[in-house]
Amino acid sequence: MTSEQHTSPDGADTDADTGAAISVRDLRQSYGDFEAVRGISFDIARGELFALLGTNGAGKTTTIETLEGFRRPSSGTVRVFDTDPYGQPAALRERVDAVLQHSGVFGELTVAETVDLSRDLAADPLDRDTVLSAVGLWDRADFAVRQLSGGQKRRLDLGLALLSQPEVLFLDEPTAGMDPEARRATWQVIEDLVAGGVAVLLTTHYLEEAERLADRIAIMHAGEVRVSGWIHEVLTRWGDRIGFRMPDGLRIDELPDLPDAAVETDIRENEPWVSYVITGDDTAGRGQRAMAALLAWARDNDVTLQRLELRTASLEDVFLSVAAQDGVAELAPTW
Ligand SMILES: Nc1ncnc2c1ncn2[C@@H]1O[C@H](COP(=O)(O)OP(=O)(O)OP(=O)(O)O)[C@@H](O)[C@H]1O
């Protein structure tokens, strides 16, 4: 993880002065009259994992395909190591690899043959056993690729991407179809790559995956980045949560005011549910203070709080508010 990027005196970010492996500036991308990406900007440093999240059709794949050099921007600039990636120039080919949504491997070849074929194309490849061990397929070397399960194919895709020892890796939903154990093993592989200095751009619909792996995130909706930042800052900004089952016989206006908190009610698992969202500046102590006030109220009023919980905001809380809203301004928490 590195510090935030700087801008050179002429206003241009450069690889040399920022350490940015990937730089996107005001990228717009259209399909005919339809603008799928509407002016987004971000940087990714070496040794950083940046998660590009978003609703279906938000523009993530379009953005990644542009960075991979498959599409020329309609306007704006994208750079990978200070180089325009359009057309996948030779200077980048050895430094960049990807796990795409749709695997390009041949079903009739064995796993070992598939790895060897990719090794033949790489300048300084890892050896076959290292690759197959890294992705947990050492016992599948002699299987035809078509005999692999969906999750195993995904692991093979990752193995093929990491064997060339890339400096930039694009991961487009890399753990789709994996069971929980394979997913965790894959997370470890990705964490090791990032620790080794690889810049990773990840898209995923598994928010737990982004929460575990990402240094910084951007959440896209309708072609725009609606929320971005260091993941812990985003979650802190979204506030802590106290929740409990709505006590029988109480109305919402009979619930107490808690410090720096706003209350709302909804239904959770078929039960009436109370949520307090706590956003005071004292991020270390605000949850405890609100909880202490709630417990004092419950004791004084002889109320039992069932299923009581205190938690920090999750990426799912942030994501759902992005998906539910349709304007940037409304997204800043107003409680
Ligand atoms: N080749 C294309 N021609 C026309 N429209 C396209 C094309 N590819 C994508 N789009 C549209 O552009 C928008 C963004 O698509 P994109 O695939 O980038 O979204 P995404 O964020 O990756 O979505 P998902 O999470 O569903 O994979 C969508 O509305 C999609 O319908």
Automatic annotation (TrEMBL):
Keywords: Antibiotic resistance, ATP-binding, Nucleotide-binding, Transport. It is found in: Cell membrane. It comes from the Bacteria. SMART domains: AAA. The keyword Transport applies. It is a peripheral membrane protein. Residues 22-247 form the ABC transporter domain. GO terms for biological process: response to antibiotic. Pfam families: ABC_tran. The lineage of its organism: Bacteria, Bacillati, Actinomycetota, Actinomycetes, Streptosporangiales. The keyword ATP-binding applies. InterPro entries: AAA+_ATPase (IPR003593), ABC_transporter-like_ATP-bd (IPR003439), ABC_transporter-like_CS (IPR017871), ABC_transporter_ATP-binding (IPR050763), P-loop_NTPase (IPR027417). GO terms for cellular component: plasma membrane. This is ABC transporter ATP-binding protein.
